[in-house]
Amino acid sequence: MLGPHASQQSHESRSFPMRRGAFGLTTAILSSVLVLSGLEASPASASTTTYTMPATGKVTLSGHGYGHGHGMSQYGAQGAATGNWGTRGKTPLTWQQIVAFYYPGTKQATFAQTIRVKISADTSADVVIEARSKLQVLDVATGTFRSLPRNGATRWRLTPAAGGQTAVAYLIGTTWTTWLTLAGDAAFTAQGEPMRLFYDAGSRQYRGRLYSSRPSATSTDRDTINQLSLEDYLRGVVPSEMPASWNVNAVSAQAVAARTYAAYELQHPLAAYYDICDTSSCQVYGGYDAEWPNSNNAIDATKGVILSYGGKPAFTQFSASSGGWTSAGDASMPYLSSKSDPYDDVRYPDGTSANSHHSWTVAVNVADIEKKTGIGDIAKATVLMNDNHHVSKITFIGTKGRTYTVYGDTFRSWFGLKSTYFAITGRPTTTA
């Protein structure tokens, strides 16, 4: 999602495409609707400001941050870990101190389990993998494993067959031959070694098992599900969400946040046959091919560690950049608090800003706002901020008395803003 190489926003809400809040690390996030609709901040510190809108031309929005702002700022984690934030030269924080700052009130706990990930890139009904040693097929109904022969095949495939059966076939040259038909669902495994999965856009390697799973007992379609240990899953998540080259304490904090987020999802699975997705709507997961030694080391160094609240895994959302002020989550999650975040102003050793998302400006055409609202010429805009920083709602007042209220998240998606932490540049007419 951001300066580095990953995928944007990581944990937004189930009612929006983005749940996590991850990082601005890659461009994927920009295209998502970025807000946590179901987890709005508490209005306890709400304030309103009314601005006079120009009749024509543009209004300038002065903003901060990238993502929903809940929980950990990934740039902030890097700033805290290096000590290079603000005026620089501060005492670096450990990963334990970083997660304690961003998720106050949580406690460390341990967690180990397998997780089922829906592979979004594989949109076909079959599961096709590269032939390799140690391959087995699992008959899900009986729990029986059968070793696949080394017979000159280049690929193996699981294909839906009549009556909910699964055909196991192999490819030699250009000809597919059925080797076995199983009564129900099936999975491939290479006994702990990675397998290369082929799909329309290319291929990627995955650890664990690759299932051909029916969404329901009567479904004729299949989805590809990757089941593997939580620790192996993280190896494909952490470097997809944060540059593995970053400070080890920042990457370790990301590992703990990602592990905890996955643990939370395991207790709130997305479907009966899988727990989590592999996109920025959940956490970006790149499988075995995404792994890096540095992030693997950080995962191993924090093995099993999660953050708990009330004896359960916390909903550890994170985003690329808080812009200097984190956003509160649902009232039941007080560890997602609204507060100043000085670490987000991360600096390079020479003192220049290393976070291009910390502060930004966007010019929006008044005519485009009028077109979206449909109320004609706009005279004023009243902005409600739920924590004196993040826009909760904007009410536009037309010259003919008509009004239109839009949520800050929706306004953000209208104009591709990086966050809801923004203000209209100009002198307000009233403030309350």
From TrEMBL:
Superkingdom, natural source: Bacteria
Pfam families referenced in this protein's UniProt entry, alphabetically: SpoIID (PF08486)
PANTHER family per UniProt: AMIDASE ENHANCER, N-ACETYLMURAMOYL-L-ALANINE AMIDASE-RELATED
Protein name: SpoIID/LytB domain-containing protein
InterPro entries: Bact_Sporulation_Assoc (IPR051922), SpoIID/LytB (IPR013486), SpoIID/LytB_N (IPR013693)
An annotated GO cellular component: outer membrane-bounded periplasmic space
GO BP term (any one): sporulation resulting in formation of a cellular spore
Sporulation stage II protein D amidase enhancer LytB N-terminal domain span: 221-309
